[in-house]
Amino acid sequence: MSVESLFPRLEALLPKVQKPIQYVGGELNSTVKDWDEATVRWALMYPDAYEVGLPNQGVQILYEILNELPETMAERTYAVWPDLEALMRSEGVPQFTVDAHRPVRAFDVLGVSFSTELGYTNLLTALDLAGIPLDAVDRTDDDPIVLAGGHAAFNPEPIADFLDAAVLGDGEQIAIAISEVIREWKGEGAPGGRDELLMRLASTGGVYVPKFYDVEYHPDGRIKRVVPNRSGVPSRVFKHTVMDLDEWPYPKKPLVPLAETVHERFSVEIFRGCTRGCRFCQAGMITRPVRERSITTIGDMVEAGLKESGFSEVGLLSLSSADHSEIGEVAKGLADRYEGTQTGLSLPSTRVDAFNIDLANEFSRNGRRSGLTFAPEGGSERMRKVINKMVTEEDLIRTVTTAYSQGWRQVKLYFMCGLPTEEDIDVLGIADLAKKVIKAGREATGSRDVRCTVSIGGFVPKPHTPFQWAAQCDHETVDRRLRELRNALRGDKEYGKAIGYRYHDGKPSIVEGLLSRGDRRVGSVIRAVWEDGGRFDGWSEHFSYERWMTAAERVFSGGAVDVDWYTTREREEHEVLPWDHLDAGLDREWLWQDWQDAVSDVEVEDCRWTPCYDCGVCPTMGTEIQIGPTGKKLLPLTVV
Amino acid sequence: MVQRLRVRYAKRGRLRFTSHRDISRAVERAVRRAGIPVAFSAGFSPHPKISYAGAAPTGVASEAEYLEIGVSRPCDPDRIRADLDVSLPPGLDVLEVIEARAGSLADRLEASVWQLRLPGADVAAAEQAVKEFEAADRVEVERLTKKGMRRFDARQAVRSMAVMDDRERTAGQEPGPPCVILRMVVRHETPAVRPDDVLMGLRLVAGFAPPSPPEVTRLAQGPLDATTGEPADPFDVERADGDL
Prior knowledge:
The complex is a heterodimer. By secondary structure, chain A is an alpha/beta fold. Chain A has a domain at 7-235: 3-Layer(aba) Sandwich (Rossmann fold), CATH 3.40.50.280. Helix content of chain A is 34%, strand content 13%. Chain A is built from 21 helices and 18 strands. A five-stranded parallel beta sheet of chain A has the order 2-1-3-4-5. A four-stranded parallel beta sheet of chain A has the order 14-15-16-17, covered by helices on one side. Chain A has a three-stranded parallel beta sheet with strand order 9-12-13, covered by helices on one side. In chain A, helix 14 (424-445) links the parallel strand 15 and strand 16 (451-458). In chain A, helix 13 (393-405) packs parallel to helix 14 (424-445) and helix 17 (523-531) crosses helix 18 (545-556). By secondary structure, chain B is α+β, with helices and mostly antiparallel strands. Chain B has two domains: 3-100, Pseudouridine synthase I, catalytic domain, N-terminal subdomain (Alpha-Beta Plaits, 2-Layer Sandwich), CATH 3.30.70.580; 108-222, Alpha-Beta Plaits (2-Layer Sandwich). Chain B has helices at residues 20-34, 77-87, 105-108, 123-135, 195-206, 236-243; strands spanning 3-11, 50-53, 61-71, 92-99, 111-119, 140-145, 148-153, 158-164, 179-187, 215-222. In chain B, strand 6 (140-145) and strand 7 form a beta hairpin. In chain B, helix 1 (20-34) packs across helix 2 and helix 4 packs across helix 5 (195-206). The two termini of chain B are 24 Å apart. The chains are: A alpha/beta, B alpha+beta. Chain A binds chain B through residues 7, 11-12, 14-16, 19-21, 23-28, 256, 258-260, 264, 306-312, 342, 368, 640, and chain B through 14-15, 17-19, 21-22, 25-26, 28-33, 35, 40, 44-46, 48, 58-59, 87, 89-91, 212-213. Chain A: It comes from Planotetraspora silvatica.
């Protein structure tokens, strides 16, 4: 049974909406496959606006890999803005893919990639517009399997009611494996309907099907246990880890949008995972171990990607890009190759040390020398020990001195507020640090033309980190500290004008905290917020703290839990956490010990260069650290 | 920069929803993919020497958009036409490339021919509205601009306007439901009078309100020929020079 394109009906609505180009598809390197020739059909969703979703690496990688499979096809769908949503409702146009404008409900799988919890309400909009029942238990064989992935899927419990399944970790191999399960099941005539399909997926051990697990609670609200409610379902579900990134050089053909998006460049992941051990960082904990892509594969991917896309900038992505074992050679090799071609190179996520200035100089050889960004994260030495961000004040001053003296005029510093054990003085320490940075810059350059911007956001404790037990700081305290920091910076006659200050207020962090460490009972809050009009919660102009609090109060009234219980409450060691049955490979006892070390200011080294400290990931997952150096170099490109 | 190439391109189908900023990004990337030796401006932040003349509004299709590319070594215009066309997404179609002679291209674009398809509109009502519009000296309309609501005259810029029968549609178009086609020649003035401004003028003078949004296409633009009252081909200068 073929499906018709919704485009003619959509087209009539487009003249009435903002930025219509985001809905028309037709991006360079996009793929439209014949509906009838595919057996397994994926709709991949990034639950935010097109301008944010299109550049997402995860979606682009899976899109390309799935479309390379002979009997499988994948199309993309994004959150539509409220102006189009209203028109789609009044005209009866369902949620569509941008590739061939097919109705999302006609697909076998709706795979949704959650980088952040703030996309949950957008999932509900998409399901509702698609005509897919919000509650997984109400779905029929005519509905797709709604499958979540991405970092937020490491605790999918708050959206468990709305999901059929979730996968943890790297998506490449599990997406192929799921396609194969569906292909076989359909080939047999889809025996047992969606229930059997979900059972087959769950029994692999690599797909979490929430409805096959029951959650029992203590009278005080804590979780008693989470247990499978049928046989054949594993008691724990593990994350997926792709080993040997050189075998998976995606994206090969990056999508090139017509619409303007948040990242206008070709991005190459130079490695996955990070073992720096920053305790606040969920990404660093759940993506272990470090797996590098080799310098030669990076060079090949950059060359092919630029040729295929026409982008004029390359971003070398990872969680801490300067940590690649051959980053110096990569930087020099790429800068040599693209000298004189007006190609920009960028290296996000660098740490604080002088070596990074050399890298930055290399990267800016071909283009703009704008600002440098460093993330000390904590304002005091003690705070940085708590979070295991091993940067001393001397490191920072030495690094920025080098930067300023080599021609950089602007330095951005990232911090967090509301960290465990934090006191006012830790945040105010940021002001002293920033002043010392400017002072060092003026001394190094003999000029007053140096600037520094302090950027600070609220800390949210995340699952699968040592801080998963921590009390989140209340937003009143966060806001007060941010205000006092602002006064300390602005009020300074000597340095105030040279220091910029950017901050976010603390309220959104509380909602993020509720969604990050929530359990299944939070699902009703998400639904209530959505029913009350909640959309695009990651956008300050759409986000409403009051809407979330009102909904939570209504849903939780008379019960044992409330927003504070989920956010500002510290957990005991043995409390069952909502995600304990979902395994990122981290040993729970190690995480607890690391939490205890944190509050005693004990630091932990990086296992790439020091002995293993038994976080548990490699033995549990059967993985290993994969790093260079390979000793290879990037040769000049042959001129055609 | 050793040579300037003038490009006429079309913006068709769903690509009519591109804005001029979308188009400039697409062109810059297509130029890189095609390996066209585009010249760059000097300075702290070099940018490719590509200039755009009077882009059609977002949502409006066009058969006659123009841009100019400065290149750093001499290129064969026909080769550039083919290469750039392949590199641009289907719907942004390169129609003609010609080596620039003296004079500014933008200065030659004095007027446009617009075609408005008005599905479901009434022919007689359209004809009556056009008659009343043409009889007026001024027709003040309003448009929300970046600087707020602006009032301006939409009448004087309209050189001619005709209501065409549905059957006179250009060949190759799919037959659809009956509709009115308005064809108008509009001078480029400041503030620019756009087809939707004229449509608002028709509503104001005669209450003419089509039931659905117009499908607008720019058919041509160029120097206004005083005898025919139509825009001529802006590349006539290059073609004439080429014959010398």
